[in-house]
């Protein structure tokens, strides 16, 4: 008997995301898609669904989509906006909406029916989306704000939060719908009749506000009152009003754009929009707020009822019209930041003189929620740090100029509970001062904040150190999701450095559904591009760092390719193709000499130096030449551009980039390859691994070059990593690809310096910025970076667990399951929720056998590489797999290769290491 199929719907827009499973068959997921489904301003949303069934070999044959203007029409199977008809296709992701033109504010309801080789589903449960304000003329609101005497704009700046309110009455009619569109810069919290709207924090997402400004949308129909209504908004500084140091961009003082649209059941409308009739004050409890320095809050200045009716705002000032930020108003597609987790402290140590240090037990990002007792006017201070000095006091040298301090002044109504609103901290330890008596652990809770996104990957092994490193990676990655991927969360930097996230973004994509975040970041990168074509090293360019690298800006192309490979989304490549091409030609025209890319600025950043107190090596034998880095990357990126050109239909460009790549390869080998010795440049592991992984090494010399990588690693570095940020992006996969997974495993599980295990044994609960982060210059000792992870997480999932796209496939439509068992590792259990469904690989070695449980999602298939002994497979074992529906392909090295249809399978083969 055929088992039932379940369909889950997703609204993709220009990207893909997941929603939660419905509990019953043939029902859809909320079309929440991890963006706000209200306020979409893309003209062609893309629709996706996931088919789930316990049956094997489920393949979609056709689909039928209906999109309606009302739920009633959809329930009557009337697709008045779009009826796709029965479409013969196995595509279930990124189906472009093909119906009537969509207008601002339009609400669309949709469902899908799918025909498979196992039967036809019933219609899915409905889902919906709502269009936002798609045209500038839709905005009637004006940007408002004003300056205040309390603003301190010189020296150590201090700008208090703004409190803005608008009281209004509605017509005595029944409200059909009310929608609030809002953007408060830098950050905002919005209320309607005292009720906070949404659960986001630190909204909206950061951008270059002169290029784009994001707005959020809220359905507030249920928040309205039949009497007086009040909109209240608190404005914080964020990245809009940074005002810290020379070189950091400052856009202006906090400002607000808000528009409430009310539609009555009789069709009549009301509009309440920001203008000079709104009231504003800076005389509220948030005295100062800064992402870097913390928040000062005086509870004595609280204004009970300020965001409700009946409040006396006579002392408040009229808002003033202010200059608009300049950027285009856009609906925010990537999710906002929210409180995603909580951490309970594990210890409270007394320092003397009324000071205590709270230990959270985990380096985290967010803030501290506390309960405190005292008298009116008592001032409590919270100072945050990642590390302690030997005497138990905070280590703050690595915070540089960031104060990282919250101050709370009590109103005298003990106990009082407080958490900040417009700041965050990277910390494990908190120094507490100003308490009248020793607090208890129960008085504190760490609230972990980062971009709301699904946890899509799980990974655990029999090796406890590997598991600890993975957990450190998990904490480090989510610590640095802040509406953009940042380098660090604690010091006076916190910038979107491109080089930190190139290949690392792919590893992250196994763990988190980071699609929306990285698609948004590509927009930031293009908006930061210079008129002549240069791409800076930081985006958004709050620091104007543009050094004309190949390696750092190369992340632009690498991440676009990642979104295509991992999520199957071509849209970012289409959108940014011209910009990426412009950058490549800019670099070629300015720095290419005889097909050698002479320019790279940062080198193999933070490779292990020869002395523990150094940040950067001064030993020429360890340093990879800039032109080697620049040329290998130019070659690799030319190959990507040739692929992109083909995908977007520019055949001439594709050929031109391919020809350029061939010329670069020839010139590079002529200048830098020592054929007699089998190495490149000065024989660093980085020079050799990049040349090998990027395909620049002539085939007959590949083993010789790889032998030098192994010899250099073993002889000169005693089996340890010798690469920095650039080389580590290719190291682990490169070792496994050429047969030395054992060496990769050794590097992954080393406990002595330099290694990830060394960090663990030194007490790290995240990943350090430096391999020698405990000994180098304190000013560059971030304890929460991810750049040195390189391709470790990709290796964890793609090699140890063996979950990969099959070459030529994207979005895991066709999967390669090929684990790389290594001696000493007894088991790996991993799962990854791809755009087509959950993939599982769970293997263990047991009594001379390899036992492997795998899951291939519906509407996909897999090429499965089963580890065997001595390149042989027992015929009986082969027949058992074929009986389950697998098709035997052949034997490759020590793998028996099968084609598997979708389904879950338990494999068992004889296996000896």
UniProtKB/TrEMBL annotation:
<dbReference type="Pfam" id="PF25788">
    <property type="entry name" value="Ig_Rha78A_N"/>
</dbReference>
<feature type="domain" description="Alpha-L-rhamnosidase C-terminal">
    <location>
        <begin position="802"/>
        <end position="875"/>
    </location>
</feature>
<feature type="signal peptide">
    <location>
        <begin position="1"/>
        <end position="19"/>
    </location>
</feature>
<feature type="domain" description="Alpha-L-rhamnosidase concanavalin-like">
    <location>
        <begin position="351"/>
        <end position="450"/>
    </location>
</feature>
<dbReference type="InterPro" id="IPR008902">
    <property type="entry name" value="Rhamnosid_concanavalin"/>
</dbReference>
<dbReference type="Pfam" id="PF08531">
    <property type="entry name" value="Bac_rhamnosid_N"/>
</dbReference>
<dbReference type="InterPro" id="IPR008928">
    <property type="entry name" value="6-hairpin_glycosidase_sf"/>
</dbReference>
<dbReference type="InterPro" id="IPR013737">
    <property type="entry name" value="Bac_rhamnosid_N"/>
</dbReference>
<feature type="domain" description="Bacterial alpha-L-rhamnosidase N-terminal">
    <location>
        <begin position="173"/>
        <end position="340"/>
    </location>
</feature>
<dbReference type="InterPro" id="IPR035396">
    <property type="entry name" value="Bac_rhamnosid6H"/>
</dbReference>
<feature type="domain" description="Alpha-L-rhamnosidase six-hairpin glycosidase">
    <location>
        <begin position="456"/>
        <end position="798"/>
    </location>
</feature>
<dbReference type="Pfam" id="PF17389">
    <property type="entry name" value="Bac_rhamnosid6H"/>
</dbReference>
<protein>
    <recommendedName>
        <fullName>alpha-L-rhamnosidase</fullName>
        <ecNumber>3.2.1.40</ecNumber>
    </recommendedName>
</protein>
<dbReference type="InterPro" id="IPR035398">
    <property type="entry name" value="Bac_rhamnosid_C"/>
</dbReference>
<dbReference type="Pfam" id="PF17390">
    <property type="entry name" value="Bac_rhamnosid_C"/>
</dbReference>
<keyword id="KW-0732">Signal</keyword>
<dbReference type="Pfam" id="PF05592">
    <property type="entry name" value="Bac_rhamnosid"/>
</dbReference>
<dbReference type="InterPro" id="IPR012341">
    <property type="entry name" value="6hp_glycosidase-like_sf"/>
</dbReference>
<dbReference type="GO" id="GO:0005975">
    <property type="term" value="P:carbohydrate metabolic process"/>
</dbReference>
<dbReference type="GO" id="GO:0030596">
    <property type="term" value="F:alpha-L-rhamnosidase activity"/>
</dbReference>
<dbReference type="InterPro" id="IPR016007">
    <property type="entry name" value="Alpha_rhamnosid"/>
</dbReference>
<keyword id="KW-0378">Hydrolase</keyword>
<keyword id="KW-0326">Glycosidase</keyword>
<dbReference type="InterPro" id="IPR013783">
    <property type="entry name" value="Ig-like_fold"/>
</dbReference>
